[in-house]
Design goal:
Blueprint lengths: L1 H6 L1 H4 L3 H17 L9 H17 L1 H11 L2 H19 L4 H13 L9 H4 L7 H7 L2 H9 L7 H9 L20 H16 L10 H13 L5 H6 L1
Helix pairs in contact: 3-4, 4-5, 4-6, 4-7, 5-6, 6-7, 6-12, 7-11, 10-11, 11-12, 12-13
Length: about 230
């Protein structure tokens, strides 16, 4: 077992142990979303702590490079957003407990995609109207799954359900306005958008960091995301 662990290229990469733990925790949740019994949040809590420590030690860029080298698709997106959210919290001197909550919410934010057909989830092109309607169910699916678990905080549940809401009420699934969207959800939203823009997809090249930030700045000028948080990112 020791030799196998030493030979694991992910574990040996910068931040690899934290990424391995986060990936394993995500995989267990994605596989277990249809099961009726309580989920074990300990692996998520452990992974969140390891991610925070790894990013604080090696920096976001190296951590994201390792994610890109070892994960694709939905797991890559979840981990990219997790890294961004964690780094946001660390760099902006949020309390450790708040960073842990933000990291956990980021890890869990797309858990509802486990119920979305792979033909839609992995489609190598833009979604049509019907497919988009199905895809947009994932926040509620994830929320409904997690709210049955007594260990999940209200803030994390809000992040899972509302990370696609916009301040002007044009988001989904509930069309919430600014006064009903809490701060950690606002942070996760901009990290989610940035992560989607800079990740590699089969049908599009990744945006550069400058291009992604320009798009976020435009969204802020339109009143969809919070300007101060975009500047902080």
């Amino acid at each position: 077992k020791t030799n196998a662990r030493q030979a694991d290229p992910l574990t040996q990469a910068p931040g690899g142990r934290s990424i391995r733990l986060a990936g394993q925790a995500l995989e267990a949740l994605f596989q277990g979303i249809s099961r009726p019994y309580a989920i074990d949040m300990n692996p998520i809590a452990q992974a969140s702590g390891e991610v925070i420590d790894a990013i604080a030690e090696i920096g976001l860029a190296k951590w994201l490079d390792t994610v890109r080298a070892h994960h694709v698709g939905t797991f890559q997106h979840c981990l990219l957003v997790t890294g961004l959210a964690t780094s946001f919290g660390v760099k902006n001197r949020m309390r450790r407990a708040d960073v842990e909550r933000l990291t956990t919410g980021a890890l869990l934010h797309d858990i509802g995609k486990a119920k979305i057909p792979l033909s839609i989830l992995d489609k190598p092109g833009a979604l049509d109207a019907r497919e988009l309607e199905v895809m947009q169910r994932h926040p509620v699916i994830g929320y409904d799954y997690l709210r049955q678990q007594s260990q999940i905080s209200g803030e994390v549940l809000s992040m899972v359900r509302s990370h696609h809401e916009y301040l002007d009420g044009s988001g989904y699934p509930d069309g919430l306005m600014a006064d009903r969207i809490d701060d950690v959800t606002r942070i996760l939203t901009i990290c989610d958008i940035y992560g989607a823009l800079v990740e590699q997809r089969a049908y599009k090249a990744p945006k550069t960091p400058d291009e992604a930030m320009a798009i976020l700045s435009t969204l802020a000028s339109q009143g969809k995301v919070e300007t101060s948080l975009v500047k902080a990112l």
